[in-house]
Amino acid sequence: MAKKKEKAFDPYIFYTTLTLVVIGVIMVFSSSFVQAKFKMQDPYFFLRRNMIWAVLGFFAMIFTSKVDYKRLEKLGNTLGLVTLILLIIVITPLGININGAQRWIGVGGLTIMPSEVAKFTSIILVSKIIKNKQDKNGNIVGAAIPCLLISGTFFGLIVKQPDLSTGGSIIMTTLVMLFVAGLSMKVVFAMLGAGVGLLGVLIAIAPYRLKRLVSFIDPFKDPTGAGYQVIQSLYALGSGGLFGLGLGRSRQKFFYIPEPQNDFIFAIIGEEMGYIGCIFVLLLFLFLIYRCIRIAINAPDVYSAMLVTGITAQIGIQVMINVAVATSSMPVTGIPLPFISYGGNSLAIFMAAIGVVLNVSRHVKLDGS
């Protein structure tokens, strides 16, 4: 008997992701080599590490694209427990503190961020809860509390690092998934209101957050303090003009923007590749999100639809926050640009998540649209 031919995954998602990763590798090197040469005595320090994670991410993406996504549902509780343990370990003396933030755990010569793992573990668990609730009675309201309990637990542990933006993105992704699953807009707005109240409490506990919150409105009021990074980012974007200064010719990466390969890499793209380069990158993200939404709409079951929805929402939320911060459209907060910012395991996990989307796409009728 002839072996059944394996159905192909969505090539548009696959190649768009690879294009973004290649752009990321190039821009990480371009933005980091000056500071890497000075700080690490090795201009290729960040490039080499980023390429290692990109290769690992590629194999992870291929692996998750072939392994049945339904296995994630069975492994959900185990993954949740492992993630919880990692988040607790990172805030103990075993965690690694860099620049006042304790977000990493050392594994051999590499470091991992448990908060990046938590982003996608929460998506797996929330998808499982929504699927189980809808299978029982079709009432999504009953899923809201356990879903928010899981994401809220991850949020609380991540804020302790401290990392409010990553924790907040997990909550926002959960709300998007609940809304898509059928939760009424009134309930979603009520939850958002509760989130704003919680933010107020967190600001009261740590006043430095208030300074960050208001600095983006007029960063020039504190040009050497809270407004410094935003001002340098705006200088980079402004000097790039329409076509940019040229690849590798950024001026702001010469110690004006701290760690330009990370959260403010979009500013370096704007400076070197101009408005055209920025639009091109954003169009790639828009196309990727569009294709992922099509997969979610046509997914074969509730669980796979929620998985793809959550992954798509996480990518979209991070892109919006990162670009908004770089353009001084919202308060400064540290969150990487997916597939592009230097971020080690963040890149590999995002690529593995896209592999899950590709896996689901094998069960969806593809077309050329």
TrEMBL record:
Q: Does the keyword Transmembrane apply?
A: yes
GO CC terms, sorted? cell division site; plasma membrane
Instruction: Quickly give the catalysed reaction.
Output: [GlcNAc-(1->4)-Mur2Ac(oyl-L-Ala-gamma-D-Glu-L-Lys-D-Ala-D-Ala)](n)-di-trans,octa-cis-undecaprenyl diphosphate + beta-D-GlcNAc-(1->4)-Mur2Ac(oyl-L-Ala-gamma-D-Glu-L-Lys-D-Ala-D-Ala)-di-trans,octa-cis-undecaprenyl diphosphate = [GlcNAc-(1->4)-Mur2Ac(oyl-L-Ala-gamma-D-Glu-L-Lys-D-Ala-D-Ala)](n+1)-di-trans,octa-cis-undecaprenyl diphosphate + di-trans,octa-cis-undecaprenyl diphosphate + H(+)
Enumerate the PANTHER family for this protein. CELL CYCLE PROTEIN (PTHR30474), PEPTIDOGLYCAN GLYCOSYLTRANSFERASE FTSW-RELATED (PTHR30474:SF2)
Q: What class of enzyme is it?
A: transferase
| Gene name for this UniProt entry | ftsW
Please, which domain of life does this record's source organism belong to? Answer: Bacteria
Transmembrane region(s): 12-34, 46-63, 75-98, 104-126, 138-158, 188-210, 264-290, 302-327, 339-360
Q: Which family does it belong to?
A: Belongs to the SEDS family. FtsW subfamily.
Checking InterPro entries in the record gives: FtsW, FtsW/RodA
Question: To which species is this protein native?
Answer: Alkalithermobacter paradoxus
Which pathway does the database say it acts in? Answer: Cell wall biogenesis; peptidoglycan biosynthesis
Q: What is this protein called?
A: Probable peptidoglycan glycosyltransferase FtsW
- Provide the taxonomic classification: Bacteria, Bacillati, Bacillota, Clostridia, Peptostreptococcales
- Subcellular location, record wording: Cell membrane
Q: What is its EC number?
A: 2.4.99.28
Q: Which GO terms describe its molecular function?
A: lipid-linked peptidoglycan transporter activity; peptidoglycan glycosyltransferase activity
Q: Tell me, what is an example of a GO biological process annotation in this record?
A: cell wall organization
Keywords of the record, alphabetical order, are: Cell cycle, Cell division, Cell membrane, Cell shape, Cell wall biogenesis/degradation, Glycosyltransferase, Membrane, Peptidoglycan synthesis, Transferase, Transmembrane, Transmembrane helix
Role according to the record = Peptidoglycan polymerase that is essential for cell division.
Membrane topology classification: Multi-pass membrane protein
